[in-house]
Amino acid sequence: MTRQAEAVAIATRAEEAAKGLLRFLTCGSVDDGKSTLIGRLLYDSKLIMEDQLRSLADDSKKHGTVGEDIDLALLVDGLEAERQQGITIDVAYRFFSTARRSFIVADTPGHEQYSRNMATGASTCDLAIILIDARKGVLTQTLRHSYLVHLLGIKHVVLAVNKMDLVGFAEGRFAEIVADYRAATSQLAFRDVLPIPLSARFGDNVTMPSNRMPWYRGPMLLEHLEAADVTAEAGRSAFALPVQWVNRPHQDFRGFAGTIVSGRIAAGDPVVVAKSGRATRVSRIVTADGDRAEASTGQAVTLVLDEEIDIARGDVLVEPRARPEVADQFAAHLFWMHEEPLLPGRRYLLKLGAELVPATITSIRHKIDVNTQEERPGRTLELNEIAFCNLHTTQPIVFTAYTENRDLGGFILIDRTTNQTVGAGMVEFGLRRASNIHHQHLDIDKARRAAQKGQKPCLVWFTGLSGAGKSTIANILERKLVAQGAHTYLLDGDNVRHGLNKDLGFTDADRVENIRRVGEVAKLMVDAGLIVLASFISPFRDERRMVRDLLGEGEFIEVFVDTPLAIAETRDTKGLYKKARAGQIKHFTGIDSPYEPPEQAEVTVATGELSAEAAADQILAYLTSHL
Fold it and tell me: I need a surface site. Which of 25, 330, 417, 563 has the fewest CB within 10 A?
């Protein structure tokens, strides 16, 4: 790039920044005209190049749905699958600019099955255009998307009643739809809802007034988008900057880099580290373009502080007068985005700001029917479902209510095995522990108890299919350990279901809770200095990893009792496999519920080849050499 071209590019970026940026989305039911509306905005704003128009004309002949006319929806429906089906199935983002403002628009899917894509598009937007087909009126999917828009913190809504050309541009029909929508969404916390009658196909009231609807005297859609004030709330918010990284290029410079998510900061202003409460002042505000006297929301900066204090990635610098909450428990709305259901008790990774910590959904308080907004009970969450939940993180994190600050109140959940995003959440409030509950100091600790017994405590965890021989091998191993003078205890899967876990069934959610409870009990027993043997099918890797994480280094010894399903079925003394094959037992591991074998077990015993006695000897040899 030449110096002249670079100077023009810099000037252009500065001009765009000065105009301000509005992020908005279009949503509504299938075939309400969302993509056509965006195409019309681009077309009428003269933002389509000649070669794009020629390509669009060719595409319209092959994929268009408006006869001989150019199908403007194809400007946005870029996926081949969308063009063939005539629907939007992904979030399509487009940038455009007018003389007054710059825009990023997210065109989101209308189908219910793609609600997670819609939630993704809405998460960064400040305004929503909710389209309604004038022929169909307010539909269930209209209300679904309106609720999601409300839940994701969007306060400004345009109710675009589209396809007015197909109802004769009737004022009465428009008024009827607006009244129905306002009545159905009266409980949602929108700051403003502007109804606009339009025809996206022909451009009526999109960028120019319609002479076919003289009864409408409000602003055109583009006129409103250019003037909409969505920054008032952000301007009043207190300063907050999540630290992305510690900038230390040499020993004479130490700054804390990140993007300001709310408020303003100036050199000399006081700041506090949210977690520790350590206070200091900002001495410099460093940017790629040099030092600045002040900075505000959305700007990426490096703050240099007056004092050398302990700050790391994940910490949040805030104003002293407005410190956010710091806790390891909170309540939140959770939107589930994965085909595999949410299982309370299972450990996920939670990312909020720059922090990434293990987290568990401790309870689902209620599920929400987004079509009716009714609350109903539930124990798991399926794809696209929403619930109000309690969550627990392994360490305190910094957060605010999502309604106060979307950046400090919004989080995602990540599967620890696949690293996929499985859920998105909006924090409502922190959950405080009872003020009279504290950790009690004990003079006798695990090391002292273990020394008294003359052994190194550990948990030997047997996992495998039903009929693999886990309980038999564990029983033989305990007998051999006791004969050598060891202090042991055997936790067996069947036995704990007669007492500790008698309230649990065999659904995936109950299996997770079964292992969670057993893991906590086993941890206490290891703390007592015992060698604990635990015999459980424990089919899921995540739950076995959860138990491993409860214990110290080297204290969890996973034993995979590796037995082929066919052999396990021949040992079916209780007739369980036979009943499962006949459909008399549901959620039976290996038949209609999966078993996930260990990937790196400390010991693997192949009981298809070894006797139970030989398998116990193999495990004993491992314990003897490692404990």
Answer: 417
- Same domain for 123 and 245, yes or no, is no
| 351 shares a domain with 307 | no
Cα-to-chain-centroid distance, residue 92: 20
Residues 332 and 215 reside in one and the same domain = no
List, for residues 418-447, the tens digit of each pLDDT value: 888 899 999 999 987 654 555 677 889 999
Which CATH number belongs to the domain containing residue 420 in this structure? 2.40.30.10
E strands in 433-555: 458-463, 488-492, 531-535
Pair 291, 339 in one domain: no
pLDDT digits (tens, 9 = 90+) for 396-424: 999 999 988 888 999 999 998 888 889 99
The rounded mean pLDDT for the chain is 85
Q: Say what the pLDDT of residue 446 is.
A: 92
> Per the residue annotation, which of 538, 593, 611, 625 is the catalytic one?
538
The set of residues, in sequence order, having a beta carbon less than 8 Å from that of 240 and lying 6+ positions away, is 260, 261, 262, 263, 316, 317, 318, 319, 324, 405, 407, 408
For residues 344 and 380, state if they share a domain. Answer: yes
Per-residue pLDDT tens for 143-152?
888 888 888 8
Lowest mean pLDDT of 137-141, 326-330, 441-445, name the range: 441-445
Compute the CA torsion angle 309, 315, 321, 327 (nearest 10 deg).
-120
Name the nearest CA neighbour of 535 among 552, 558, 505.
558
Of residues 160, 204, 198, 202, the one with CA closest to residue 178: 160
Say whether both 586 and 561 belong to one domain.
yes
The position carrying tokens 């105009």 is: 19
Q: What is the CATH number of the domain that holds 562?
A: 3.40.50.300
Give the C-alpha separation, 191 to 328, whole Å. Answer: 32
Same domain? For 317 and 333 the reply is: no
Domain limits for position 87 = 3-230
Phi, psi of 303 (to 5 degrees): -95, 130
DSSP string, 309-336: ----TT-EEE-GGGPPEEEEEEEEEEEE
For residues 166 and 509, give the distance between their C-alpha atoms in angstroms, rounded to a whole number: 50
What does the alpha-carbon distance between residue 143 and residue 29 come to, in Å, rounded to a whole number?
Answer: 9
Is 538 assigned a catalytic role?
Answer: yes
The number of folded domains in the chain is 4
Phi, psi of 580 (to 5 degrees): -65, -40
- The C-alpha atoms of residue 579 and residue 411 are separated, in whole angstroms, by 43
Count the Cβ atoms, other than its own, within 10 Å of residue 234: 16
Give the sign of the dihedral formed by CA 234, CA 239, CA 243, CA 248. positive
Averaged pLDDT, 22-34 = 83
